[in-house]
Amino acid sequence: DDLGAEVVSGEPRQRERLDYGTDASALMTGVWECTQGSFSLTYPFNELATILEGNITISFPDGSEHSFGPGDTHFAQKGDRVTWTVHSEKVRKTFFIYMGDQVEASAAAE
Fold this sequence. Notes:
This protein has 1 helix and 8 strands; from the N terminus they run ββββββββα. The termini are far apart. The chain has one helix at residues 105-109, and strands spanning 6-10, 14-20, 27-42, 46-53, 56-59, 65-68, 73-76, 81-98. Strands 1, 2, 3, 4, 5, 6, 7 and 8 form an 8-stranded antiparallel sheet that branches. The model has no long low-confidence stretch (mean pLDDT 90). The protein is mostly beta strands.
């Protein structure tokens, strides 16, 4: 599944191994990898991911960007619009996905 990503540059190719859950599950975990290139997408889920191999930069519409490499963890909130740039030959990450809607921190504390 390409998640509606739009290729910006190169020919990024992705694949994943789903270790828990299905495409219809509220929770999923597994390993994902992608070859060098750039793509934009709007996250359809909340994701916590840790880079295992490779180097990336994630850019946001406001011009901010964050770079990640092996051992770095990042969080993407459902609805975030980002551009991924894979600098290395490929990037590989573990992921934990929650498909539900965000819960405001103040509501969770009640």
